[in-house]
Amino acid sequence: MIRLSYWIILSLLVTAGVAWLISLPGTLTLELLGLRMQPRLGVAVFFVVAAIALIVFVWGLLRRVLGAPYYLARRSRERRKDLAFAALSDGFIALQAGDAAKARLLAREARANLPQNAAAQLLEARADLALGDMHSAREHYRSLITNKKTALAALSGLYDQARAQGRGDAALTFAQKATEISPYTSWANAAVFDDLTRRGLWDQAEAMVAAEPAVSRDDRMRKRRRQAVVATARAQLAETTDALAALDHALGALKLVPDFVPAALIAARIYINRGDSRKAMSLLRRVWRATSHPDIATLFANAVPGTSAVERLKRVRELVDTPPQNKPAAMVLARACIDTYDWAGARDALANYAVANPSQSVCLMMAEIEEGQSGDQGKAREWVNRAVRAPRDPVWTADGITAEDWEPVSPVTGKLDAFEWRVPTSAVATRLSDTQSPAATPKPAPANPLALPDS
């Protein structure tokens, strides 16, 4: 309705304008080839406007006729482009759905309609890779590297192909080239960083972590954790050769993650070796309150070398509440009591943890208590038998293996910060030290958690 009103108003205005032109006073004299015309001024203006409109119409018609071939060619190109984009879209959907053969056919169809389209070639390379046609995929990727827009995508494909073929050196080379093009490419940075940590190049790894951008709170926390792990790895490496540097690295890790147990143990051992037991005990007390890690309490008990078992028990009682608030505290206190032949104190410490589903360490300690307190071999043997079927205790675990001490990377996958202090969920292998071999490994014996770790 509103549009109709606009047309009516416009028509009235045009009609009024024409009537006004025709009614203009005066005449116009025109002489052409001996002919003289004297139309009225309004009629002359009207014919001039009509002639101009006719010329414009004829010119437009001629342009449409003369430009028909170009218009048809452009329509054909647009149609081919639409078909190519449709095939490209369907191809990516097919590849994501797992139909690599259909994706390759659609990619070739897209390339036939758009030969210069890099996305179509990238799709065909991905499809070739999924189908196992490594040679074709490699050729596509190598041709895409020359294009700045597709270089990163091509390097990513070559990296995936090299990893699928087990060519670790080639994969690393592609990742390094990608970091040269774009320093903040996540997959390339991860590959280069994993290689640095796997080879123990902690200086370069630390610099690389420090340069990582961290926008969100989670990113900042993750970055601080990685920096702490790398700093602890540097401290672990330098502990026996450069104690001062190792202490700086360990304390730096604790500034980033205040309750990081491996860094606290390294720093405390260095303090103890330097004769500064007070600083070691203060540090260990703070970390114990946050983690209740048994290794922390063990080192706290041995903070003053050469002391007797009674003095170690006193230090443990300073650290551990009575009664113990958790199982690690109870086990550390029980071990200290056993070393001083305080069988009643050891039994009281384990009272809440030896009744329902005791762990292996609790069962073995109860066997020691039964044998030491009353000499009852039968009850001691019963506890040892229960230990065989009892749940395991937390250990440093990563990728299906356990280790006596924390390690910065997994020996299986090379992943940084893979070791966790937890109960193994399945049968796992034991990480051997460098001086042990499977044939020379002694049978496991009940561990003494108050033994001071080697420094």
Could you describe the 3D structure shown?
- The protein has helices at residues 2-22, 41-66, 68-97, 100-113, 118-131, 134-145, 151-164, 168-181, 186-198, 202-210, 217-238, 243-256, 261-273, 277-291, 294-301, 309-319, 327-339, 343-349, 360-373, 377-389; strands spanning 30-32, 35-37, 395-398, 401-403, 420-422, 429-430.
- With 455 residues, it is mainly α.
- The strands form 2 sheets. The chain has a 4-stranded mixed beta sheet, with no helix packed on it.
- The radius of gyration is 41 Å and the shape is elongated.
- The model is unreliable at 433-455 (pLDDT under 50).
Rg (CA only)? 41 Å
Sheet with the most strands, sense and barrel status? 4 strands, mixed
- CA-CA gap between termini: 93 Å
Q: Give the low-pLDDT segments.
A: 433-455
Percentage of residues in strands: under 5%
* Fraction of helical residues: 55-70%
Series of secondary-structure elements, N-terminal to C-terminal: HEEHHHHHHHHHHHHHHHHHHHEEEE
